[in-house]
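> example.struct
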């Protein structure tokens, strides 16, 4: 494969990886509107897809470098904030008299801004932490055992994400025991999904920049 063909291939792969990251962030936020019970723990449905964003972020980092990973994190946060604002705007618009679902639409999709802000803040801080841990592992420890860089970075960023979200969204609203229960259930489910996502790091080639 010539140099120009390799550049095109990396660019196409990069587009797919970035698109997958942003899409997973958006789907996780929408799915979070559903609260489910799993093994006796209350978890939002977005918890089952959100952990994949950490591995997808690692793929962006591996393929495009740290600067690109930082940019994608901020872009996804801005898109999710805009999505919440547009849901609010759509709910505010007067419904057509023949459309019977205004109450249901507003009840389900009108954002609770404290939860939205807590979610976006958790995403930004945890994903940036994931970026720096990944960078340190690759530059200071080893480029071998690629699964290990994902496991180490996610093992620290997942609890950070859950801590910021649980206390940012529900601290002071519920008793401490309930907030810690939300935190624990998030860590358990996200940790399990992280283990499933580990092989994904091998989907894209390594670039020189870390």
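> example.seq
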């Amino acid at each position: 494969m010539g140099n120009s063909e390799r550049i095109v291939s990396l660019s196409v792969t990069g587009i797919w990886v970035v698109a997958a990251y942003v899409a997973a962030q958006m789907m996780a936020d929408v799915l979070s509107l559903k609260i489910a019970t799993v093994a006796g723990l209350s978890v939002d449905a977005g918890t089952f897809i959100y952990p994949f964003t950490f591995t997808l972020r690692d793929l962006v980092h591996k393929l495009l470098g740290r600067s690109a990973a930082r940019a994608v994190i901020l872009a996804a946060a801005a898109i999710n904030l805009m999505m919440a604002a547009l849901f609010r705007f759509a709910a505010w618009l007067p419904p057509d008299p023949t459309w019977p679902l205004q109450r249901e639409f507003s009840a389900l999709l009108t954002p609770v801004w404290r939860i939205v802000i807590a979610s976006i803040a958790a995403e930004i801080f945890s994903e940036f932490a994931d970026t720096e841990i990944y960078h340190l592992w690759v530059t200071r420890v080893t480029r071998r055992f690629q699964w290990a860089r994902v496991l180490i970075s996610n093992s620290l960023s997942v609890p950070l994400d859950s801590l910021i979200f649980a206390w940012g969204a529900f601290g002071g609203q519920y008793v401490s025991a309930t907030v810690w229960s939300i935190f624990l259930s998030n860590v358990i489910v996200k940790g399990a999904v992280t283990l499933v996502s580990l092989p994904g790091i091998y989907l894209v080639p390594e670039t020189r920049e870390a």
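> remarks
The mean pLDDT is 88.
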